[in-house]
Amino acid sequence: MKRSSKDSAKAPAPPYTRTFAGVLGGLVGLVVLSAIAGLLVVAPLAPVLAISGHAASTAVSLFDGMPSYLAIDRLMLPTTIYARDPASGQDVELTSFYDQNRVPVTFDQVAPVMYDAILASEDPRYYEHGGVDIVGTTRALIKNAQGGATQGGSSISQQYVKNVLVQRCERDAVATETQSRDDMLRACWLDATQASGVEGYQRKLQEIRYAIQVEQQYSKNDILLGYLNIANFGGTTYGIEAAARYYFSTTAAGLTLTQAATLAGIVQNPNTFRIDRPTGSITGADGTTYNKAADGAIDDVTPGTLAGLDSLLADGTITPGQHLAAGDAYSATKGRQLYVLDRMREDGRITAEQYVAAAVEPIAPALQPAHVGCVATSAPFFCQYVVNTVRSDPDYAAAFGATAQERQQSLTREGLNIYTTLDWRLQNASQDAMRRYAPETVAGMDFGSASVSIEAGTGRILAISQNNRFTEDADLAATDPAYTSLVYAGDLVHGVSKGFPTGSTFKLFTLVDWLEKGHSLSETVNGTLRAIPRLQDRCEGTWINRENHVVRNFGGVPGYTGTPMQFTAQSLNSGFLAMAEKLDLCDIEDVTARLGVTRGTGEPVDIDGSAAIIGTNNIAPVALASAFAAVANNGVSCVPRAIERVVNADGEELPVPGDRCTRAISPEVAAAAAFALQGVMRPGGTGSGANPNDGTPMMGKTGTHEQIQTWLVQSNTRVTTAVWVGNANGEGDVFRASYNGRVLSTIRLPMSRDIQATANQLYPGGAFPAPPAELVGRPRAPD
User: Which residues pair with residue 83 across a beta bridge?
Assistant: First the structure.
């Protein structure tokens, strides 16, 4: 048929303004639909009453008993984690977490063609009615009376109400032992869309009542925008902006006609028409997923072919006898898109030429998955440390909630902006060093390695790296040793890790107690190999010697009579046991507590004998780094933290702990301890191979536990770095395995060197304070 010039010209689209008829439309619809519903409710039960008019009064009574006001809840929004870009000074998105991926937009941030598409296909008389489509809703009620579910026939306002109610149900959905959260989400949708019988009438009438109230309270544009911001577009993609970004790598403002028509089609049945599974499966309106055959096809579809496919036949997604061919995965979506385009043409919103051009254009998604979860970042273990802080750290209850459920909702639904302490420059250097020196796996052991760098004067965690690949898939982590979600740098709260035996790095605490008791670094001590006859433990109220054997020095080094300065530089076990003999184990425990150190489980450090003096307690690398940082910071200890600030969806700052710094040891003791620890990093010291030798004064301490764990902690006056290399679980000899020509027990040295070299460039350290003479140069008289 020949087209007229009138057909080929675009007719003016209806204005986005409410008409006078629309103001009255809701009230008229209420009266008409109440009467119809009354007839349908009562007629099957009592035809005589229906004829007598009792049905209408029954419907009115039913309607009057329903709630009349629907509060519009805050949309579920992603929580976004940021890290500062040092080059620009701007906060850059690290990743996000969400139950619903949504980016709310304003009315002007949506392309007019998107409004045209959704109105033409879903509610062409939207600006002319008062919230109720009388014809469509009547058809739905009659269908319900015939035994079908009350779906379809809803105005935009009714659909908006339905989505608000669904989201309210989803917000409260928490998995139980008998029902998964996915099952609960599906139940929310089915309850809101597919109730039948009297329950279906009630749901539809309640939806109408709410829609009329919403129309009275909000403008038409606000409701239309609200619908596009709340609507599901398949899976976890919600709202038009997230849909535009995900499916087409554009924005809601940049959508083309074909893209807008596709998205307008998707909302009718999101998980059926989504376009991110071209070779995957078909999902019916009832939530059931049907896998395609090996060749990607389902042949000769007829009612009853597969259980549940009737719902797809009923809503026209597929037709009897249809062949869903391989390579034609979007055929159903294309059919729905053509329907939208046809409605736009009939409604005068596009021309015939525009219709044809869009109709012949194939659906071509340009998927851009959102950054979600720590797996999507290049700093996954730092990210997971932040996530664990949100989920579990009691000090952050004021910002994230008091219960596990509240905290999970804060992470995935509240639209928080979490700004972290991460320094990308140091993080990249840390991760590069980890990749260079540490393997992902080692045969015969559960190998692991982690590093953490902390700003000494604030407690800000600047970088965390780990040798593993990150995953939150428990099955993958259980079967492939390269993967884990554990943050080895953290403790049980922040890393779901219990820490590791520290070896000789623990000697720091004996050294501090030695100095606090007035002993000198130059005091002569009998550090020969011998059984220590007694160790005083005031907390236990007794003298103990539980092991009753000679504790050997690493590498078969013989003991000698020397000074704590020598013992520290050479990490002499027998020397520190001799120092502990003159002290009280309970006082050493007190030092660990003042420096903020606990076991990885959160329990106090327990020094129960000579072996504990040289490091058998499991301590997290973050905690150990923090203790050394306190020494570098003149004795002031700052609680480690990875979160700088938190802003809620309204732009309000939430209360989070900032710098929490307290004096743990005196400046004099800190200066003397740092003086001794500098000897470790000088030539002849056990940590000299890790010194960047860039002119920056460095202090540090090495540690080895059996053949299982190795450590190195080093610091300038501003940044402390702890490196751990060893066995994450069980035993394995790191002195017998190699990677890239290096024995694993030695890789802590170059790894720490490279990381700290970058820290020295970014955070130049100065000279450590001079120690008081009485703690360094004047030996104390023998006891």
Answer: 92
Q: Residue 293 is encoded by which pair of tokens?
A: 């055959």
pLDDT in tens, 72-122: 778 999 999 999 998 889 999 999 999 999 999 999 999 999 999 999 999
pTM score, two decimals?
0.83
Query: How long a stretch of residues is the chain?
Result: 783
The pLDDT value given to residue 299: 39
Sign of CA dihedral 350, 113, 121, 336: positive
Q: Token pair of 618, please?
A: 């499991």
- What pLDDT is recorded for position 718? 98
DSSP 68: -
Which strand (E) or helix (H) includes residue 417?
strand 417-423
Backbone angles phi, psi at 724, to 5 degrees: -120, 135
Q: Which of 631, 659, 619, 654 is nearest to 460 (CA)?
A: 659
Pair of tokens at residue 30: 């209420």
Q: Which tokens sit at 78?
A: 């992603």
Query: Can you tell me the distance from the alpha carbon of 501 to that of 613, in angstroms, rounded to the nearest whole number?
Result: 11
Extract the runs of DSSP E, i.e. beta strands, from 373-494: 417-423, 446-455, 461-466, 469-470, 483-484
Rounded distance, CA 409 to CA 387, Å?
Answer: 12
User: What whole-number percentage of the chain has pLDDT above 70?
Assistant: 78
Tell me whether strands 446-455 and 461-466 are parallel, antiparallel or unpaired.
antiparallel
User: What is the separation, in whole angstroms, between the first and last Cα of the chain?
Assistant: 115
More confident residue, 120 or 362: 120
How far is the C-alpha of 430 from the C-alpha of 433, rounded, in Å?
Answer: 5
| Continuous segment of H or E residues that includes residue 338 | helix 331-346
CA distance 555 to 742: 18
Q: What tokens were used for 375?
A: 């797996």
Identify each DSSP E strand in 587-640 by its residue range.
618-619, 636-638
Asked whether the beta carbons of 720 and 625 are under 8 A apart, the reply is yes
Q: What integer pLDDT is reported at residue 59 of this predicted model? A: 46
Find the farthest-apart pair of alpha carbons in the chain and give their distance in angstroms, rounded: 115
Residue 41 vs residue 99, higher pLDDT = 99
Contact call for residues 282 and 312 (beta carbons, < 8 A): yes
pLDDT in the model for residue 15: 54
Is residue 352 within 8 A of residue 3, CB to CB? The reply is yes
H or E stretch including 765? Answer: none
Angle of helix 404-412 relative to helix 380-392, nearest 10 degrees, comes to 140
Instruction: Please give the single-letter amino acid code of residue 106.
Output: T
Instruction: Round to whole Å and give the CA distance between 106 and 780.
Output: 75
